[in-house]
Design goal:
- This protein has 100 residues and is mainly alpha-helical.
- The chain has four helices and no strands.
- It has helices at residues 3-16, 21-34, 40-60, 64-95.
- Helix 1 (3-16) packs antiparallel against helix 2.
- The relative contact order is 0.06.
- The mean pLDDT is 82.
């Protein structure tokens, strides 16, 4: 099988819901590490759009009352977690010499 066929099979399998999102994510990571992406140039623009749409869709699924309640109690924890994630990502990127 060529990489395009494997790519589309994994894409369809993950979109159908037959496998759980964590398994689909692991399969995508393994595919990305093991094989060359068959649509590398096309996927860059699509990934930016799909990431933004995913974040917006995630926000639609949240209960506003619960968000406000958790926001009052956990604002510092949230800010610290976000700051840690950004700093850790930046340092790991520098360590692995990943270009922006």
């Amino acid at each position: 099988m060529n990489t395009k066929t494997i790519f589309f099979l994994l894409l369809i399998l993950s979109a159908t819901g037959f496998i759980s999102p964590p398994i689909a994510l692991c399969a995508g990571i393994i595919f990305g590490l093991a094989l060359l992406h068959p649509f590398a140039t096309d996927s860059r623009a699509f990934s930016e759009i799909s990431f933004a749409a995913s974040v917006v869709a995630l926000g639609f699924g949240m209960n506003l009352h619960e968000v406000l309640k958790a926001g009052r109690n956990g604002f510092l924890y949230t800010a610290a977690g976000i700051a840690f994630a950004l700093i850790a990502g930046f340092l790991i990127g520098k360590l692995l010499a990943v270009g922006a």
